[in-house]
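re: ur msg from earlier - yeah i can do the zinc ion complex, just paste it... oh wait u already did. ok heres what im feeding in:
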Amino acid sequence: MRHMAVLPVVLLLLGCLTPNGSAQEAVAAADLQYEMDVRLDEDGRTIQADLVVQWTNTGKAPTSELRWHVYNNAWSGPQSLWLQEARRHGDRSQPKVVGDTQVEQVRMLTQGEDLPLDWNYQSQPGAPLDRTVAITPLPKPVAPGETVQVALRFTAALPQAFRRSGWGPHGYLHAVQWYPKLGVFEQLDGQWQWNCEPYRYLTEFYADFATYQVRLTVPERYRDHLVATGSIQGDGPQDNADGTVTYETYAEQVHDYAWTVDSNALLMEREFHAENYRDEQQEALMARALGKTEEEVRPSSTRMILLIQPEHEGLADRYFDAVGKALYYYGLWYGSYPYPTISCVDPANDARKTGGMEYPRLITGGARLGRLATTMSPEGVTVHELGHQFWYGLVGNDEFRHAWLDEGFNTYSTARVLEAGWPPELETWSVFGREVAGRLPMSLPSYDEGELRSVLDLTRWESPDLRWIPALSYELRHRHDLERLFAELPPITAFPRVEKHRVTDNRRVMDHDWTEPLQKPTMDLLNSSMRRVNAYRRPALTLETMGRLMGEERWARVLYRYHQTWRFKHPQPQDFLDILLAEGQGAEVVGTEERVTIDWQSFWKHAYLENDRLGFSVHHLRNVPAPAAEDGSARFTVYAGIRRVSDFAVPVPIRITWDDGSSTTHVWDAKTWTWDQRFEQAPMRAVRLDIDPERLLMLEDDWLDNSLQLDADDEISWDMGIQVMLWAQQVLQYYGGSG
Ligand SMILES: [Zn+2]
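and the outut:
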């Protein structure tokens, strides 16, 4: 075994390198330590490593085994649970070149013992040959508070880029889920046990916060072409005699470790300083909400690192801008990003399947040339993945069961950052670098990955990654001829369109079926469409609705407190509810004079435990002439009615607009099914009825039935209706009188 003596160094480093963390957090992180000596083969895809894990049982029960995630084995062949589930979900894709992890040696290092241990894979129901969870039985149980040290030697061959991980044929390697990683020993279903699920189709990851000391030895061509979860120690890599270089890296309080090399990519670095991204209004809000000064809520500095494809060099500013704005807003709302570096990878064209993912301190974005300049690519994906540093990276929920605690909170936050950081603008169509307002009158055909139209605007052709065409990336030689041709075209881009509102855009999820409640464990959901609904936009709208109902200052406190309470920990949905109940207690519906408090238990029941959609609709608005006032001016009796159309009862503001333009707002607690009001002796007609005029209820199913406007025609016909009634009355009286 190489470098078994490095652990004391880790302990030493803990003292001096804790970034903005308290001493207590550093001790917690030290309960789990990974020390790895890693060598990347000349082929750029095979990793050989020695790993020493030191694990302290922080639970309240002993355990006589360790459980490991060995997720790289999901790509070893069609027998893996992931690929079996993929087929069941109608996804027949497979890695073009498979990968797997072989563990060659497992040994116990505790207290002078040096025991060989077993390494058994856990058979999974429906996929008996799955090898993504391994168990090592221990010679004697580890009691609470006790520590064990285990050494592993393994070889991991990564797959050709497939579902988040792998390599591209031209020098790119994105190493994720590449090493055996311990599960979480915790209380689950009422008993202390390993929470260590196999790699499943609908879920991502879950592990404990740890300290990582990782020594990466890579072929010389990757010098200055490497980014990692850990900070690079010293002045960069050391040269070795055998044509390799070695990077010493270090990270703490992270629950995973990823790294990327790309011999073609460019490496750029910039400092993040909050001063460059000031938003006075949001700073003032957070200062008010937290009782701090604006100086105190402003996020602290960190170093931004970008590994970007050479053909995307022109997008570097936009990548940095997206990372910077996201660090600023997330840091402002939830507390500063606490690590010394954040790395962002623009994946190689022939390995785009590794794009759009998040790992602690390392994210992958994605961009394609030839896209509309205002399509928010790469900004949209970059902000979202950066946001995961906060929701998943720092607040480390169980993604097997509660993906909405990271994806939902992050989708909510992403929309807000995009809305705050990039004001809506007119879409433009880029024709060989020239921006033309508007967009094409129709969409050109697009492929599963990559758009055909992207070929129009390239210096380097990024072909769609189709199975029957090998992925290509080459200089487009006849660019100038094509450019001339397109420059001659008449301005066909004559349909101006403003980028949509990013928060409201999450309401697209209303078009989908909500077959299963938010509380259903993510890994057991019906299909990936249900996962997209329940993990992303639906919880985002739920959070948006909570915030709008209770008002931004109180809501800012709820999110900040929840984040800070659960930073470097593993919250459950109940933990969020507890903070919602504590901070939201007594909250009244904002923006109205009538004071109606919100029952958050009831809200949670409908929104989370049950599967209720939220809906109200206008029923009627009528003005009936009443006897005139003493001074002869007209008087009306006004009838207004609203219906609740689902079980989801939540207070809702209702606005009546009067003939002179004034309005009155009421709040209905919606505990009954209908709101039926009669306004006697009204001095003028009501002309409009609006349910939730300020759109607090972002979860409301259908906004089209929320308003009723009585236009002039209605009034005329109504007047005629009155006349007919009066006439009928007279007729009846006449006949009645004569009969
Ligand atoms: Zn996400």
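cool cool. The pocket of zinc ion is lined by residues 384, 388, 407, 410 (CB under 6 Å). ping me if u need the other ligands too
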